[in-house]
Amino acid sequence: MNNFIARKSQWALSVLLVGGINMPANAALLDRGNGMLYDTVLNVTWLQDANYAKTSGYDDDGLMSLTEAKTWTENLTFGGATNWRLASNSPINGVDFVFSSDFYSGSADQGYNVVSPNAELSYMFYVNLGLHGRYNTNGTPRSDNGVFGNGNLFELDAGGNVVGGADAGLIKNLQNRAYWLNTNEGPASNWIFMPYDGWQGVYSNENQLYAWAVHDGDVAAVPLPGAVWLFGAGLAGLLARGKR
């Protein structure tokens, strides 16, 4: 019996420490605590607060021109880390940005349903958060688009005040209007992503849009939680007892 307990304990301990307590294999967004989320696919860290420019008191409403948005992110220190930036996108085909009349299938850079990891914010919206754009990939409209999941551009709170964003999954304060991306299309225009309808495209640099800070790599990587080690130590104790 003691040998049986020992074998069972050793198996449980190896599963726990080697792979049994890892996040699900398909997990892409991990909560690192302290307001930071790590994307295992994109290898970037997102601020959990998608309108931190406002909630931190930096800007009254979080709406900024492209120059203002870049100034905020590039000078941001959060979690002890510097070198934050705006979310970016690169050609989904790896070569050139594609502008096509097929706006819906996700095969063009400017359009809806872009789920390529090369489009960081669009990937976050469609894949990590499971939100929907205004159109299906075949071009038929849908009514569950946007941050609120009901096609509304904004909603009213209990006091009758206009609310332009909501929490979505692990994300806090995701705004329903456009966010700047860190990719220039030309001297006067820049790429943006619009959560309301799931559209990625190009806007004039002078528009007042939101900014979401991103950092390359896993800024807040943490060791295995202490509780796990305590549990493992308990199993190790059972193993030792079994041997005795």
Task: Please describe the structure with a list of short key phrases separated by commas or semicolons.
disordered N terminus; alpha+beta; 5-stranded antiparallel β-sheet; globular; 24% helix; 13 strands; 244 residues
Description:
The protein has one domain. It is built from 5 helices and 13 strands. β2 and β3 form a beta hairpin. α1 packs antiparallel against α5. The longest helix has 19 residues. The protein is globular.
Question: In a few lines, what is going on in this structure?
Answer:
The chain is of the alpha+beta class and 244 residues long. Helices cover 24% and strands 22% of the residues.
Number of domains: 1
Total E-strand runs: 13
Biggest sheet strand order reads: 1-2-3-13-4
| Percent range for β-strand residues | 15-25%
Largest sheet features: 5 strands, antiparallel
N-to-C order of helices and strands: HEEEHHEEHEEEEEEEEH
Distance between the termini: 12 Å
Broad structural category = alpha+beta
Q: What does the radius of gyration come to?
A: 22 Å
How much helicity do the residues have?
10-25%
